[in-house]
Q: What sequence folds into this?
């Protein structure tokens, strides 16, 4: 059913997910890619080191500072940002190729990045993943192996700032449990595929 | 999960479903009411005779032409229409009471009615249920016991006119199978509950 929706699609939809540190957006992106046909996670470029278990080309494209800056100079990023001292960016070409092929692209970008895409007037569905409480946010940051009290406070304080931006997004998902949050994300994706302006080709001929 | 969404809701959401004759919107409304807590189907008023199996107060409020016109004179209808010679209307009070109590209201109105509600600037989610083809539309009309060739043609021709209006709705659901259509309706309802402007009360305090 989900796949048959795309038969006549000329253009994929861009879904932009962002969330404060530790709200669990990466897992949700992967679940969406697994669930829907013709949906791909756009792999970001980053200058930070891979964490244990992360694969180059799957989780991120890990590049040097030099390569990143060259791409930046050539205007190849749809959005880019410096987060906690590292550079992150989304390749414009990667996304446009997916959308042209009728594949939905799901992007996992921070609030600054989402803002850049939005300010360029790109049509997309903007989804903010919020933690159910600031406490749960702290727990997830700690679980990630961030131990220094200063670093935890720094991330929590930026999480608070980011939460204040949630209201300009199209949707807000409270990530209380992964199942609930994914049920909502899945629903938003299905709903957006059924927006009237996207359904014109599917209406019976008059 | 679905019910806990409503704890802090101050105001319900109005979902307006319309469809050409025989696209199956009434069944979908009932399924939504069964599935979601705090969702009620607004029962329309009509001057037509009850069909077999229809109950007064559940399927419609069956009223006389005289009573209907009195209500009309008192401005009690959010929308009203004459369809195939009968009057149909939705009580403004019924809907407003539901929404104030934090109950979502699902309305089952024809295209003329939906247009009236929209033109009054009422905030709501407008959903068009379309048949997968004009043939399937004809079959459903015939199954309803409409036998006269003229009457079938009349209804089909108004279905075609109504299909042309689908594009001003927020969403279009192709009713190919009931399961698919309900999955989409359910997704739209969940997605709308998670619209950013409705989620403000649920964000963690900063």
A:
């Amino acid at each position: 059913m989900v796949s048959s929706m795309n038969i006549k699609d000329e253009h994929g939809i861009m879904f932009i997910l962002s969330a404060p540190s530790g709200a669990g957006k990466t897992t949700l992106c992967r679940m969406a890619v697994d669930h829907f046909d013709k949906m791909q996670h756009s792999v970001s470029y980053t200058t930070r080191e891979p964490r244990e278990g992360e694969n180059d080309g799957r989780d991120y494209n890990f590049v040097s500072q030099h390569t990143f800056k060259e791409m930046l100079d050539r205007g190849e990023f749809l959005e880019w940002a410096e987060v906690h001292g590292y550079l992150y960016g989304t390749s414009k070409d990667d996304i446009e190729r997916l959308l042209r092929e009728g594949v939905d692209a799901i992007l996992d970008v921070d609030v600054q990045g989402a803002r850049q895409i939005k300010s360029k007037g790109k049509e997309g569905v903007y989804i903010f993943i919020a933690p159910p409480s600031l406490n749960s946010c702290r727990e997830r940051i700690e679980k990630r192996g961030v131990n220094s009290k200063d670093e935890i406070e720094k991330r929590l304080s930026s999480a608070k700032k980011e939460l204040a931006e949630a209201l300009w997004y199209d949707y807000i998902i409270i990530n209380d449990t992964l199942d609930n949050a994914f049920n909502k994300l899945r629903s938003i994706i299905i709903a957006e595929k059924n927006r009237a302006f996207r359904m014109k080709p599917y209406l019976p001929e008059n």
Notes: Confidence is low (pLDDT under 50) at residues 1-7 of chain B. The interface with chain A takes residues 1, 128, 130-134, 137, 160, 163-164, 166-174, 180, 183-184, 186-188, 190-192, 194-197, 199-200, 202-206 of chain B (CB under 8 Å). The beta strands of chain B are 14-18, 39-41, 45-46, 61-62, 77-83, 86-91, 104-108, 125-130, 171-174.
